[in-house]
Amino acid sequence: MSTTGKVIKCKAAVAWEPKKPMTIEDIEVAPPQAHEVRLKVVATGVCHSDYYILYEGGKEHGFPCVLGHEGAGIVESTGPGVTRFKPGDKVIPLFVSQCGECQLCLSDKTNQCVKNWTVDEKNMESKSRFTCKGKVIIQFMGTSTFSEYTVVREVALTKISDSAPLDKVCLLGCGISTGYGAAINTAKVQPGSTCAVFGLGAVGLAAVMGCQAAGASRIIAVDINKDKSSKAKEFGATDFVNPKDYKKPIQEVLMEMTDGGVDFSLECAGNVDVMRCALESTRRAWGVSVIVGWVDVKDVSTKPVDLICGRTWKGSYFGGWKSVQSVPKLVSDYMDKKIKVDEFITHTLPLEKVNEAFDLMITGKSIRTVLKM
């Protein structure tokens, strides 16, 4: 029986308020409006950014909401004006849009877009197609993949190969693409260079993979969890350093290990203190440090002389990828065994155990948990 044009009732993990576990609810998903697409979510990764918004980011992000932004699914129906998608298409929703027409999209200097969902944060409720118990439920990042169905804008969706396994390539909607691209596109790691990656979750391991793909000769993986050592080396790290094993600051340790600092460092922990450590671990004359971990409620600082003397400090958003055009290529690279994806997945759980997935992540027991609907 066709559901086109009708409200769909389905299960979703609803975050009713900050710092409280999500609950599984029956929600209503309205039909897509002009230039929108409704899709059945098949699988979604559980990213640290979802945890951050719920437990660390504060009320300004909007509650109640449905989190999740690393999913993959199948188009159920399309709204008026949609020309690039049809029911049955395999797709990945994107938290970074690409309209292809704005000043940002037409520039090769950025992967951002003026139509990004978060540009107009004051109208989150009016843009949502979710309701539950008579209340509007905000769609986090315009994706909300912790739901069996979701509605996204056409400019924030990309079609992928019909043969792609959705329970694997969903991870290319955020974590893997972000870390891998941060090394290749943002840092622009060079062959023969020395790199350090701070934080070995999925994003950090993907950054290690990117450094190796770029031809780095030495990749130092840094994490306070000693159990991450073997995993880091599986992705290409040549060294593993645990800051807890040293009495001196980790940046001093790395400076000594590399005779003056690494050429490139990537901070993937989302910790402002680690961001400074990562910068100060680079070579003073030409080191490049990239902030990848998401933080928006704390300030980061350094001594101006650290930049005056030649270091470069910059950030990376979704790995610098132009989303709509790049994600299908990353899927193809995975299918052609050019990049790892399966190796990131340590747990697979049903949607009902989403809170357990958070626990696994925060305790360091998982790299990526995939929720299957």
TrEMBL record:
Keywords from the named record: Metal-binding, NAD, Oxidoreductase, Zinc
InterPro entries: ADH-like_C, ADH-like_N, ADH_Zn_CS, ER, GroES-like_sf, NAD(P)-bd_dom_sf
GO biological process, one term: formaldehyde catabolic process
Domain Enoyl reductase (ER): 22-371
Cofactors: Zn(2+)
Entry's Gene Ontology molecular function annotations: S-(hydroxymethyl)glutathione dehydrogenase [NAD(P)+] activity; zinc ion binding
GO cellular component annotations of the record: cytosol
Domain of life from the UniProt record: Eukaryota
Pfam families membership: ADH_N, ADH_zinc_N
Spans traversing the lipid bilayer: none
PANTHER family in alphabetical order: ALCOHOL DEHYDROGENASE, ALCOHOL DEHYDROGENASE 8A-RELATED
Similarity remark: Belongs to the zinc-containing alcohol dehydrogenase family.
Protein name: Alcohol dehydrogenase 1-like
Organism, scientific name: Erpetoichthys calabaricus (Rope fish)
Chain's gene name: LOC114654528
